Amino acid sequence: MIAVDTDVPPWPAATVTGIGSLPGTDPLQAAKIVVGELPDLPHLPELPARGLGADLVGRTAGLLVDLAVEYLPSGYRVTARPSSEVRRARDHLQRDLDAFEQALDEAGTRPSLVKTQAAGPWTLTAGVELRTGHRVLTDAGALREFGQSLAEGLRLHVAELGRRTGAEVVVQLDEPALPAVLGGALPTPSGYGTVPAVASSEAGSRLRELVDATRAAGAAAVVVHCCAVDPPVGVLAAAGPDALSLDVRSLGASSLAGGDTARLDELGEAAEGGTALLLGLVPAVDPVIPPELADLARPALDLVDRLGLARTYLAGPAAVPTPTCGLAGASPQWARRALALTRDLGRALVEPPASW
């Protein structure tokens, strides 16, 4: 068995949390579900069904300081002054904060930790164009400016969320576009070519800058999340987050079957170095057959076995069960059930049945 660094995350054992998005458009209803089902580490819900400004890129653009975007047929683009989309994003966020605070008040609970989410630097700058039509990430100066602006916006957001809830704040940086950025798979404005691939070293360095800035701004912990089937674990871990959030059910299925083990080796190194793991285990969309807890736990058990970790690792604070990804695509019924199953799974992993 490998030895794991003794750094302890700021949450206790059996803690579980969600990824971010939920179905629907009612922020108070979403907040009540999250607070009720995930009392130890509730997350500020995202409701992308509300449209522009509520999606990941638009919501994050609303956090930017001294930078603004607008929405054109081709997507989000840099503009000189705040647009209606930016104002909408900020309005959505304020309503979400109001609803979250109200849900906590009505539940009569004040958790010591809460979580919020934003796009990481690569996903944000891959999703916004310069006025030339090229993606922000293709311009080194613009990329740096966006990173600094987002860091300042997150500082203000963390302070407000902490003030409203009385809790310390965990920040999750979402990087769903990072595999395409690294693989040179993003299309150019013409659609006839692709943006050159970004080197892994540069990607990790830029992400680390935001991780460090967010931690320095008062975040209790910083999580980087990517629920791709084959996530760039090495790049994510090189950014130095406190935790990695990954879809364990699809993570390197070939690796778990005995094939390419590169991703598992990177994940093992991260865990050995003290990086906590947010383990995506509960389906993010309605399953055909309702799963049992044993079925949900199996990928986590297989993973720690392959990593050379003792199974007791799953009972400690370094392992946090989550849904596999955001729940925006789920039915309202499954979204609530998925969070309840996540909570039940966290408890079961602390004292697993002998049959597991």
- SSE ordering: HHEEHEHEHEHHEHEHHEHEH
Mean pLDDT: 94
Would you identify the regions where 5 or more consecutive residues have pLDDT less than 50?
none
Overall morphology: globular
Percent of sequence in beta strands: 5-15%
| Major sheet: arrangement of strands | 3-5-6-7-8-9
Q: Structural class of the secondary structure composition?
A: alpha/beta
Count of separate DSSP helical elements: 12
Report how far the terminal alpha carbons are from each other. Answer: 19 Å
Would you count the extended β strands for me?
Answer: 9
Rg on CA atoms, Å: 19 Å
Structure explained in plain terms:
With 356 residues, the protein is of the alpha/beta class. The protein has 12 helices and 9 strands. It has a 6-stranded parallel beta sheet with strand order 3-5-6-7-8-9. The protein has a 3-stranded mixed beta sheet with strand order 1-2-4. A hairpin with a 2-residue loop joins strand 1 (68-72) and strand 2. The relative contact order is 0.15. The mean pLDDT is 94.
Write a brief structural summary.
The protein has 356 residues and is of the alpha/beta class. Helix content is 42%, strand content 14%. Strands 3-5-6-7-8-9 form a six-stranded parallel β-sheet.
List keywords for this structure.
single chain, alpha/beta, six-stranded parallel sheet, three-stranded mixed sheet
Topology overview:
Blueprint: H1 27-37, H2 56-61, E1 68-72, E2 75-79, H3 84-107, E3 113-119, H4 121-126, E4 128-129, H5 140-165, E5 168-174, H6 178-183, H7 200-216, E6 221-226, H8 233-238, E7 243-247, H9 253-256, H10 262-272, E8 276-282, H11 293-307, E9 319-323, H12 332-350
Parallel strand pairs: 2-4, 3-5, 5-6, 6-7, 7-8, 8-9
Antiparallel strand pairs: 1-2
Helix pairs in contact: 1-3, 5-7
